Amino acid sequence: MDIRKLDRAAVLETVRILEQADPQDWDLPTPCADWTLRQLVAHMAGQHHGFAAAAAGNGADLSVWRPAALGDDPLTAYRTAADTVLDAFAPPGVLTREFVLPEISDTLGFPASVAIGFHFLDYVVHGWDLARALGVSLDLDDATAEAALVFALRVPDDERRVGPAALFRPALRATPGADVLDLVLTALGRSPDWTAEAARRPFTAPRG
């Protein structure tokens, strides 16, 4: 498994999806509760900068993980962040390094292959988030989806998935016969049935 190649494919797919966004789309709801498209992309760009800093040995500084300022051209800001992390992961020696990822642990370091695996899984899932928010397709090949499932099934499904700071929500039950990407999503607490249209509907309390 070439984790850097897989990660690059996932990241570039998020760029391709965002290239389809119109100016009015940045306020759309997303599967990430309470985040508009702009807020989600600010988070994603910030994570790119954080992982790039971690690859350079500077990941312990929490300030590098903050959501990025997107300004008046959010697509260009996101492209720049994506290029930054892909460049940071590219040097041959990076896989011998240890990454500090304070949002996961403030005491443990992670082998580069594991840390890049975290990044890869996050951007497969966030790629789906973007695609659903915009109503477009997520185009990942079978090998990429299957690799994401391997990583998703390694994420502990315990009390750390509960609360506002949780990286993922508790796993959901998968539909029989679900495809690989849907298994990734349900393993990480996302409903494959989420739509932007449903998210915009006002809540109506049930009678009785």
Extract low-pLDDT stretches: 201-208
**DSSP strand count:** 2
The biggest sheet, with number of strands, parallel, antiparallel or mixed sense and barrel status, is:
2 strands, antiparallel
Pairing-aware structural class of the strands and helices? mainly alpha
Shape assignment: globular
Strand order, largest beta sheet? 1-2
Between the first and last Cα atoms, what is the distance in angstroms?
54 Å
Helical residue percent band = 40-55%
- Please provide the ordered H/E string of secondary-structure elements: HHHEEHHHH
Strand content bin: under 5%
Per DSSP, the total helix count is: 7
Determine the mean pLDDT: 91
Radius of gyration: 17 Å
Task: Please describe the topology of this protein.
Elements: H1 3-18, H2 37-55, H3 74-89, E1 98-100, E2 109-111, H4 112-134, H5 142-152, H6 180-187, H7 196-200
Antiparallel strand pairs: 1-2
Helix pairs in contact: 1-3, 1-4, 2-3, 2-4, 4-5, 5-6
Structural summary, described in words:
The chain is mainly alpha-helical. Helix content is 47%, strand content 3%. It contains seven helices and two strands, in the order H-H-H-E-E-H-H-H-H. Strands 1-2 form a two-stranded antiparallel sheet. Helix 4 crosses helix 5.
Please give a handful of descriptors for the protein shown.
mainly alpha, 208 residues, 7 helices, single chain, disordered C terminus
A few lines on this structure:
The protein is mainly α and 208 residues long. Helices cover 47% and strands 3% of the residues. Helix 2 runs parallel beside helix 3 (74-89), helix 4 packs across helix 5 (142-152) and helix 5 (142-152) runs parallel beside helix 6 (180-187).
